[in-house]
Automatic annotation (TrEMBL):
The keyword Phosphoprotein applies. It comes from the Bacteria. This is Two-component response regulator. PROSITE patterns: RESPONSE_REGULATORY.
Length: 147
């Protein structure tokens, strides 16, 4: 990942959150990682609302990793709002989910995600997926607004 770029993980499953954290550690990804457990809280984080009112404690992410199936506001609902918001729509979103449903995949890309990754069950394969994401985002150019 870009050095020091904040990463927002939107994930309701604590085991999956720990798996992401372990995969980051294994890949020596040292970027600050912030976690919210649903789309509603992720929007509050991005807009500095409620518990996330202090921008120092909820910095703008350089990338969002998004699960799709969550309580309160799922990933598709979150994407619809974020991608319609002129201030937030350029933040790259990578779907990181267990859903292999074609409908989820098509709708995610129609809403402008930067990538769609089905979480591998095997930890070593997940670590490799995270390594490849890291490599890609280390080499990718940012939009002028994000630089």
């Amino acid at each position: 990942m870009r050095k020091n770029a904040t990463i927002l993980l939107v994930e309701d499953d604590k085991v999956d959150t720990m798996t992401v954290q372990r995969a980051f550690k294994k890949n020596r990804i040292m970027n600050p990682l912030y976690v919210t457990s649903n789309g509603k809280d992720a929007l509050a984080y991005l807009r500095h609302e409620r518990a996330y009112g202090d921008p120092e404690k909820s910095p703008r992410p350089g990338i969002i990793f998004l699960d799709l199936h969550m309580p309160e506001m799922n990933g598709i609902e979150f994407l619809k709002i974020v991608k319609a918001d002129n201030d937030l729509r350029r933040i790259p979103v990578v779907v990181l989910t267990t859903s292999g449903e074609e409908e989820d995949l098509v709708e995610s890309f129609n809403l402008g995600v930067a990538g769609y990754i089905i979480k591998p069950v095997e930890f070593n394969k997940f670590v490799e997926s995270v390594r490849l994401i890291d490599l890609y985002w280390s080499l990718s150019e940012l939009s002028p607004e994000e630089k």
